[in-house]
Amino acid sequence: MSNVIVETIDVTKIYNRGKPNEVTAVKDASLQIDEGSLVVLKGPSGSGKTTLLSMIGCQTKPTRGEVIILGRRISKLPERFMNLHKRNHIGFIFQHFQLIAGMSVLDNIVLPLIPEGISPKERSNRADQLLKQFNLGHRRRFKVSSLSGGEQQRVAIARALINNAGILLADEPTAHLDSALTSDLLNYIKNLKLAGHTILITSHDPIICQHPAVDRVFEMKDGRMIS
Amino acid sequence: MISGSWFEKQKNIIDYSLQSLLRRRSKNILILIIFILLVFGVSSILFITGSLTREMMITSNELPDITVQRILGGRQVNVPALFIPEIKKIPGVEAVETRVWGYFYLASLQANFTIYGMDLDLLEDGEYRKVVNWKNVPDQAERNPDYRMIVGQGVYELLENIQMEKRYLFYQPSWEKPIPFDIIGTFKADTELQSNDLMVLQTEGARRVLELPPDEFSDLVVYVPNPEEIENIALKIRRYFPELRTVTRAQIQNTYSSVFGWKSAFVLSSMLVAIFAFLILIWDKASGLSPEEKREIGILKAIGWDTDVVLSVKFWEALILSGISSLAGILLAYAYIYWLRAPGLREIFIGWSTIYPSFRLIPNVDPKFLLLIVTISVVPYLAVTIFPAWKAAITDPDVIIRNI
Amino acid sequence: MVMIAFCLWSGLEYRDFHKRLLEREQELRARRQFQKAVGLPNLAITTAARYLRHYSITDLATPFHDYPASLDHFPAGFAFAPPDYSSMPSPIVFGKLNK
């Protein structure tokens, strides 16, 4: 019997509550994700999948409902503990990468380790492993602004992995990639799954949704889950 | 995952703050420069006025108890000898001494000298001997002892220019011919601030040069042994002799402490400029973070940094910037005033003088004042940087990421 | 490394300061002697005008003495504040003269 490590129960997110521009991004969304599985959250843009991913990724708290990660109810936790949980267990890969432009590749990758009090040498060591894994060794000291889109995404993935997180969340990872890079990316993701990570991807790209490694596809429309 | 110690964490945070500052190098360097200039300006002025005030105060206890002048038609005139016994009669007065002094303007050099008459033998024989660099005057016995003088360093240098440093020829239009004065010494450099423009002549010679009638004096000084009595006696002198004006030592010391006070046009106008510039700097900062900075905060929060860590980074950024600026500003001001001797600034004090001291001032640094400068420059800057950062830091990273 | 340079510089300044402190003792003695011998107040900072050179014993009118309604026209007057005459009471306040 598989372990459910991510679960959402009737999760709702309302932005600008009470104001004239109030919008309900997600309504009563429920899902369960088993450990070690690769899951895709599918839907057109505006369907609320990014918002749902954010809530699972502890980037924002749900207005109603419950998000449970590794047995912990996120919505009940004070910010500090939520952050700790996030740091220890979740790696987030943003749609637009969200790297800090003026910093080098190495510095961007080790960013999550800084508040942990890890020494520079130790940080460097861990980063070097990832750099090798993602073929970024030769770009170690380069500023990220000088990298190509594909390279930047690999940096974003490496950053998400630096904390040895078990759960990886990726928001529209193939949005800026051509087909060659897309297949590269899918390879990486498959390897990560084989290594034991649990991966949740949002996408509206059919190539991803129909990939053989995908275990489950959830579909969303207008903020609601429809499958 | 292994977590490091608290120290490592702080070290990391400070490192990151430094790195963060260097990332926005040009903007931060600009702020640094403006800040340093401001602190430098304010500190320089406070240093120089503090030192000058201190120089004035240092010897002020040696001033005479009461100085008595005669005012006629709103102008100072000579004091006739007949006042002296009358003042001596006032109970509490220990002694009344006379002074012969005035000014002498040398048109060819555009120099204003202060001339003071006293018995030079007192300087030669007594405890004051060490104050003078005595010079060898050949055939001293044959020269007129009434026409001797000791000059200050500034005067001596001027006279060297016109080759009159051994003998100076005084001349007034009403005289038949100029009178030569032998320069028998110069005042030591230690007394430069007091003696620089001074010519101390033998009393008789001074009277001649100042055209002082035999029974009159420039002013009087009154010595009162009991300090509590000084005001009373000064009051009595003014009452008994309405044409006399008194200035007590306390009053002189009072002017010393207020000559560079905040009401002085000089200090006030410079402070206003500094405050104005500082407000502009602060206002620019207070108008919020740039979009990149906001984005950066969002990213940091999104990858799991606690709010207080993010704020610590901003705090250290601001502290490092303002701390370095204020320290550098103060050190630069110190070097400017006490090593370079304040070129530019000292010209303001000198004005149109042609004889002026070299401005080798004694550092008069009050630690309270330094602390004040640092506080009023660092604290507002911190406050103004942290507040917008705090507003950004408590926002959900989700919201920030979406908006960019 | 910047820190180290900074500390070194501060150290040098402090040493210079200390040296000055020692020299000062000697200067002070010389100045006190001089002041006792020649009792004129005020430092010889600016000799442009008599009311600037000896501002603390100058009378009220001197800065404006060149002609009626003249203004203080020496630039150094900007740096020095006029002496505080408020502490010198007017004889009128004290009523009749008593000899």
User: How many E strands of chain B?
Assistant: 13
The rounded distance between the terminal residues' Cα atoms of chain B is 32 Å
Residue runs with pLDDT of under 50 for 5 or more positions of chain C? 90-95
Percent helix range of chain B: 40-55%
Overview of this structure, please?
The complex is a heterotrimer of chains A (227), B (404) and C (99). Helices cover 31% and strands 26% of the residues of chain A. Chain A is α/β, with parallel strands linked by helices and 227 residues long. Chain A has a single domain, classed as P-loop containing nucleotide triphosphate hydrolases (Rossmann fold, 3-Layer(aba) Sandwich). Chain B is an alpha+beta fold and 404 residues long. Chain B has 2 domains: 6-58 and 259-403, no CATH class; 98-219, no CATH class. Chain B has 15 helices and 13 strands. In chain B, strands 1, 2, 4, 5, 6, 7, 8, 9, 10, 12 and 13 form an 11-stranded mixed sheet that branches. In chain B, helix 2 (25-58) packs antiparallel against helix 10, helix 11 (291-302) crosses helix 15 and helix 12 packs antiparallel against helix 14 (367-393). Chain B is elongated and about 100 Å long. The mean pLDDT of chain B is 88. Chain C has 2 domains: 1-39; 42-99, no CATH class. Chain C starts with a helix and ends in a 46-residue tail after the last helix. Chain C contains 2 helices and no strands. Mean pLDDT of chain C is 76; it is low at 90-95. The chains are: A alpha/beta (227), B alpha+beta (404), C mainly alpha (99). The interface between B and C is large, with 86 and 61 residues.
